[in-house]
Amino acid sequence: MQKVLRLFIPAVLAAALCGVGFARESGYRTPFSSALEKAVRMRRSVQKNPGMNRLYMMRFYFPSGQVPVGPGFWERLFDVGVTDQHVRATAFYLFNMYVSTAAYATDVPGKLTFNYLGVLDGFGMARRPFDASKAASFYQEHKKEIKAWLTEFFAKAKLPAYNARDPLNDRRELAFLQVLARSAHPAAPGGGYRRAEKNLLRGAVNVADKELLAKWLRRAVAQGRRQVVVFEQPQPDLSALDTKIKPFKSTMQRLYRYVSDECNYCSYLFGRCACEAVASRSANWGLMRIYRVVARPASGEFLRPAQGEHFVLADGASAPPWRYHTATLLIMNRDGRFTPVVADKFLTGESPAPFEEWVKKFSASHTVFSAVPFTRSERVENAIKTPEERRGKNVVVAGKVFEPYPVLK
Q1: pTM
Q2: Which of 179, 149, 181, 175 is nearest to 162 (CA)?
């Protein structure tokens, strides 16, 4: 009987090992992706915290305090046309998906959640929007150029060499692009993220970083209380504002709103403050990222909170219905650890909040998020004004009287 068992156990082990090997190469896994997974997962930092420490190997855009002026800025920055930017952004996405799935030891995800933050950064930095729904056909048309970028990206990252001629890699990359296409939404045509069932973007922010971010946020809010955003046109385009207004009978509308009352512009002031500090190089900022995060309804006109009918503001009041909401996500790295924190004066007050706490305020099934590397904007800078005087509830800007933006409660 013992002899039979000795013969039987090795056979079982061999079968089990064959089964593991088959599982690793099944689905869309390839010899290259398996080698990459092995190399990535060998790193102790990835084993400890794959959600955050995969960022060490991913491509990203370091925050900049420069203001892009005119359409020629991006041409000078990248020295390429729109199509070439989309080619590079597609390779950027595929590279970061390769690294992320390797860190998570997974095949191909069913959808893009915040656990894959960073894979869409290249599209967010392109001069023109990318149609994510047509990602697969774009890949087929520009495969040679995309793969040339992938070869370079992997070589620079000192990861396993990428084989541009392996058709199995084509199949995996098309699967990644199908995930991208599924993430496209009218609210995020270039691709968006959903709230993850199990959030992997976690990490405690140290006291020094909390104090620094709170200081920046207080400065931005104080500035926003002194400045306004103005709209002046026969039928004003108020799409940049987050709430509805009461109808006007007048054909010409001159409206304003304090920057501190408007999430899009208030978060912009904070992002600008952060970028100016980073640009000063007065500290070691490591590999930090700054994102402009926008939550939009996946269906219907207004955002839905995770609980109740209205979002609860930091002061305990109920928020009016929001068409969207904007905040700033920072991935701090001054102490060598990646820690995600959100600055959102409206939902979390004038102190930074852990990303995990902030994202749970939104309905998982009814919210789509975009997360784009923060960049300064000439258009937004020009829209923010300092009033010359105040006349009751009205303000005077450039000699013209503007009335308050009337929010529907």
Answers
A1: 0.86
A2: 149
